[in-house]
Amino acid sequence: MPDVPHNLLGAWLIIPQFIRLPTYKLLRKIGHHLYGSTSSLAVSRLPFGLYLKSTSEGAFNESNALGLIHKYTSVPVPRVLDLVADSRNTYLLTTGLRGEPLARAMDMLSDRDCQEFVDQMQSFISQIRAIPPVGPKNHICNTLGQACSDPRIRDGNPIGPFDDEASFSQYLRHPDDPTWRGHQVVFTHADLNLRNILVDKVTRLDGTRGWAVSGIVDWENSGFYPEYWDCTKAQFEGFRWDERWARALVEVFRPFGGYAKEIELEKRSWTEGDGAFRGTPGPWGKLVEDFYKTL
């Protein structure tokens, strides 16, 4: 996806927000007409290869997260072009990325593609985990050092920030279980599933054609979390994917420790509700538990 020329972008950003914002809303309507809806109700494809995300919260954190990733890693993520807000929502304008969600393309990928996906993701996770913290060591927070948000905790309402893992774990089921202790706190995507990983066709060095990861999107919940967080969060939705890809997600995290104990504790939690978190029991727990019995 070609970058927007810097001189054109610079000139556009000089224009007052009260003009830019209605322009984006108009482009969103045009985009819906031209391209239809995307996989997320909050995200609209615009003309000129751009995307607009509209949220009531999270856009400032996502914008900062994308900046950190561009600064410290080679992980392919969208580039932030603008961030504006009205009385109801915040609008994040970004470049697009090549490819399509792995959730839609997974049946077209070969076993070799699947193994190369594992290798790529291990490299990307290593890089984002090396991003330096924005607060004190072991501080659990979003990328701005503020309260973090995850849909599995209190329906996504902000919590924290926390001084340490023990304080954070009080929001989990079995909060005093020693399994929820002793982890490094690292930069985390916090919603790493196959809908948020893009893949595209490539030509390998040996001349064969295949698929490779072309981008990772949807960083609004990212922050600094215990190191197991991306692993267990990704596997929570494993029942949505076929067995090959559920196993691939397990393999992605094996070099980092695998987090078998953490997964087992979450399995116990899934039978009690929708996740590892305190709340009203729901239907997902039994689905996920039954699925993981097959692995």
From TrEMBL:
It comes from the Eukaryota. Residues 60-257 form the Aminoglycoside phosphotransferase domain. Pfam families: APH. PANTHER family: AMINOGLYCOSIDE PHOSPHOTRANSFERASE DOMAIN-CONTAINING PROTEIN, AMINOGLYCOSIDE PHOSPHOTRANSFERASE-RELATED-RELATED. This is Aminoglycoside phosphotransferase domain-containing protein.
